[in-house]
Design goal:
Strand order of the largest sheet: 5-4-3-6-10
Bound molecules: zinc ion
CATH class of the largest domain: Alpha Beta
Keywords: Carbohydrate metabolism, DNA-binding, Transcription, Transcription regulation
GO molecular function: DNA binding
Pfam family, one: ROK
InterPro entries: ATPase_NBD (IPR043129), ROK (IPR000600), WH-like_DNA-bd_sf (IPR036388), WH_DNA-bd_sf (IPR036390)
Number of strands: 15
Radius of gyration: 24 Å
Number of helices: 14
Family: Belongs to the ROK (NagC/XylR) family.
Amino acid sequence: MDGQPGHIDQIKQTNIGAVYRLIDQYGPISRIELSKKAQLAPASITKIVRELVDTHLVMETEFLDLGFRGRPATGLKLDSESWHFLCVSIGLGNLILGLRDLSSKLIVEDVLPLPASNKKSFLDCITDEIDAFFGRYQSCLERLTAISITVNAIVDPTKGLIRNLPYYQVQELSIGEYLHRRTGLPVFLQHEITAWTIAESLYGAAKNCKNIIQIVIDENVGVGVIIAGQTLHAGNGSVMEIGHIQVELDGERCDCGNLGCLETVAGINHILSRAKQQLITVPDSLLNCEPLTVESFCQAVNKGDTLAIDIIRYIGVKIGHIVAIMVNLFNPEKILIGSPLNASQQILYPVINECIQRHALPAYSEQVKLVATEFNNSGTLSAVSSVKKALYDGSLLVNLMKG
Ligand SMILES: [Zn+2]
């Protein structure tokens, strides 16, 4: 019997989260419709909605209920504008701070330099920038609900701990606990790619999918995996690793010390430097005409440039092999590609797809769909997902209702 009150609290929290999620996704929505979709009794819906309305997290609104002879009806929608949260994206050399309301709408975002060598400690640099940011935008600040941090580092999200971030020489840093003590706010910490994958699964290209793999091809090559609705982690690490799987036996030396890692083949910088090397033998390639960037590379692919197409096909094959293995391991519904190379997806995707069909179990490969991510990994967008997740599971809502 001891565990019962906790159990009831947990059910209550889950139900509040579920109702909030449905209002977010379908609002304005009537209480009757909400009761059907949530599979909760009308009396429970009335109670939960009253609490959400009293806390100003949900509001009533008149809307045209088309199913009810086109008459105006009373519906529910989120009341997001008076609640803000801070997004913090820690990059290599820069820090992006963004203020958003609970609907995720961006209020203001600043990109600030965050040099690796600084007289102040890493934590002091971050907290000083956050203080200055709040100082600058005090006039548009509403009630703060949370801080959400994303970083491309080995992190422990449950402990709010950055385990290893070599660029800033940071190890075992309890940034979550430190900021929580300083502000009293819940602090979320997540690896950037994992946060992005969660965003795609909650409200992006993989909405309503329980099993997804997201391949990120950027400066770094990475992967996010959600299976049975759960984010997979590599042991205590926050992200699974594909960038450092060997794909060329005697390939280029990688930053990790090994030879021929996938990242040395498909990382954007490596793609561009390979293209530059090969240009010498193909003087009439379109790649010669412009400053070589990922955008001009994709344009050359799309215009049918043979060299550019050969390079992107080669990348497609190497990525495809790894994806095929992952399809066999995880049997996902969707594979998302998040990359600036999506500008040439009509060339890249068929190559990856062919690899999957050729190398993965047909029963798995036949039903998997390869699609582009809905979002680009820009600004503080991926940091939104931790807050959405905590709203949808009810934990953050219960926190806000306590006041
Ligand atoms: Zn490597």
